[in-house]
Amino acid sequence: MYGFFYCASDGIIAIEAIHTSTSTMNTHLTRCSIPRRSLSVSLFSSCSPRRAFSNGTIEENDIVLLERINAKRAPSRAEPILSPPLSPRGHVVLSKGSDKLRGEWIIGKQLRETVRSRRGLDYRLLRPSLAEYTDLSPRLVTPIYSSDAVATLALLDLHPTTPGTKDEDGDRKLEIFEAGTGHGAFTLNLSRAVHAANTTPPTREKDFEYGSKYQTWRSNRRAVIHTLDLEPRYSAHAENMIKSFRKAMYYHNIDFHTGTIPSYLSARFAETNGAPFLDHAILDLPNCHEYIEIVAKALKPDGSLLVFVPQITQVNKCVLHCKEKDIPLFLDKVVELGGAMAVGGREWDVRPVRTRAFLAGIAEREVKKGIIRQDGGEIEADKEDDVDVAEKEHEVAEVEIGNEVEGSSKESGEGEWEMVCRPKVGGKIQGGGFVGQWRKMTVQTTAKEKWSNRRPSHDPEDIPDQEVIDLINKKIGQYQD
Question: pLDDT of 274-293, one tens digit each?
Fold first, then answer.
C-alpha cells in the first residue's frame, strides 16, 4: 500500500491510499477528506479512527445525562436524569409513569442534541461529569456526595508522577487503602486522582495473549487503590458502577476486596514481613476507632489516615483511643463537611486537654510535699482557694497534650482528660459529616516535635509545665503571706 496527501483548493486535506493486491495485481483508490484543522490527529489514524471521548457521538453502552428543557429551549428546574448504559432495545425511564425514551432514539446522536420523549417532552443529551455520575447513579447505600468527596480528597494532597518521570520517589508504588467501599463514589474519585501514575492497560481487541499481558500490567502499576467492604453485594455493585463510567476509564487502578480489615491487613503483613506498605488510608465505616491501631501499623511514616464519620463525638472516640493505646498518630485537623455553602468545609478544634481542676490538684500536692510547718504539721489551704478550685472544676484548661509515642510514660488515668470540641473561629460554615486527618509519626518523634509541627505556638514542654508552675507559685505565695 502506498499513500500520499495533498491540500485541495477548498482548504481540505485529502489523503489518498493506493491498495495493490499481489494476487490479482488490481489497484484501487481509497480517499477520505478531513478538515485541515484535524490534520495533527487524523494523519496518524485510519479513515475510520478509533472512537475518542471527545468526538461527541453517542454510542451503544454510553451513559448520558438527560436535561429537561422548556419551550424556550432553556434548562428547566427539574433534576437531570442519568441513563443506564444505552442499548438499541433498551429504555430510559423518565418518570414513574409511562414516559420513556428508547435507546435507539439516542444512539447515534451528538452531544447537546435534543430528543423528544413519548409524552412530547424535550431533553438535551449531555455527557455526565464525575460528580453528576456519582450523585445520580443507582445506589444500595448512601454515597459520599461529590462536594464532600472533593473536600476529603483535597486533604490527601495527591501528586502522582507520570511513568518515566525521574523524581525522588523513583519507582515506589503508591498504595491507598479504603475501608468501606459502599457506593464506590469516593473510590472513583481516588482512582481519578492517581490515574496519571499508571500506563494505559492492554486492550482485549484481537489479542489472544490479553490475559497474561493484563496481569503483567497490573503487577507493574505505579498507583493502586485497595478498597475493602464487608458486604460482597455492595462491593460488586460499586465495581459495576465504577466500570460503567467512561467505559471503565478509571476501573483498572482499583483492587476490590471483601472481608474484614484485620484479615486483609494481616495477609498483606505476611507478604511484606510486617513492614508498613500503605501511603494513605481512609476509614468510612462504623466504629472506626476499633481499627485505627492495625491501620496505623500499615501506614508508612507521614502517611495520612482519614476517618469519615457523621458525628463529631466519633472523632472524639478516635482521639481518645489513640491517646489510650499510644498509637503513633497525631491529629492534624478535623473538618466539617457538607454542601451548604462552599467546598473545603469548616475546620474544628478537637484535642484532649487537662482540666484546670486536675492541674490545681497537682499544684496542691506539690505544695504539700514541699512546704511543711516547723512543728511538722501541714499547712491548710484557705477556704477561698477551695472555692476557687470548685468554681473552675468544669473549666477546661487551654493546654494541649498530644498522643505520646510508643515507649512514653503513661501517667494519665480515667477522668483526667477532657475534650476540646468546637468550630474554629472564622471558619467556613457548612453542615454534614466530619473528617479527621491523622498523620503517622516515627517512633523517634517526640511530643515536642509533634506539636511544634502542628501548632508552633503551643509547645507541650512549656505550656503544661508552666501552667503547673504558675499554680504552684500562687499557692506558695498564699501560704507565705
Answer: 999 999 999 999 999 999 99
Neighbour count for residue 114 (Cβ, 10 Å): 13
The partner residues of 289 in beta bridges, in order of sequence, read none
In sequence order, what are the residues at sequence separation of 6 or more whose Cβ sits closer than 8 angstroms to the Cβ of residue 399? Answer: 353, 354, 359, 463, 464, 467
Is the distance from CB of 187 to CB of 173 less than 8 angstroms? no
Residue 61's region, left for phi above 0, alpha for psi from -120 to 50, else beta, is left
**Hey, what amino acid is at 477?**
G
Residue 350 backbone phi and psi in degrees, to 5: -130, 120
Instruction: Name the architecture of domain 65-128.
Output: Roll (3.10)
Phi, psi of 367 (to 5 degrees): -65, -45
On whether the CB atoms of residues 335 and 346 are closer than 8 A, the answer is yes
Position 209 scores a pLDDT of: 64
Q: How far apart are CA 59 and CA 107, in angstroms?
A: 5
pTM over 0.85: no
- How far apart CA 379 and CA 234 sit, in angstroms, is 68
- Scanning the structure block, which residue is given the C-alpha cell 505476611? 270
Report d(CA 69, CA 76) in Å as an integer: 5
DSSP state at residue 165: -
At 228-262, the pLDDT tens digits run: 999 999 999 999 999 999 989 999 999 999 999 99
Residue 294 CB contacts under 8 Å (≥ 6 apart), including other chains: 261, 262, 265
CA 277 to each of CA 95, 192, 227: distance values in angstroms, whole numbers, following the listed order: 48, 21, 15
Q: Got the DSSP string for 273-314?
A: TT---EEEEEE-SSSGGGGHHHHHHHEEEEEEEEEEESSHHH
359: three-class secondary structure by DSSP: helix
- The C-alpha cell at 395 is 473549666
CATH class, domain 135-309, is: alpha beta
How many angstroms separate the CA atoms of 340 and 357, rounded? 39
Angstrom distance (rounded) from CA 329 to CA 301 = 10
What distance lies between CA 42 and its chain's CA centroid? 38
Query: Which secondary-structure segment (H or E) carries 254?
Result: strand 254-258
Q: Domain locations in the chain?
A: 2-42, 65-128, 135-309, 353-423+456-480
Closest among 406, 405, 144 to 283, alpha carbons compared: 144
The pLDDT confidence band at residue 469, using thresholds 50, 70 and 90, is low
- pLDDT score for 164: 82
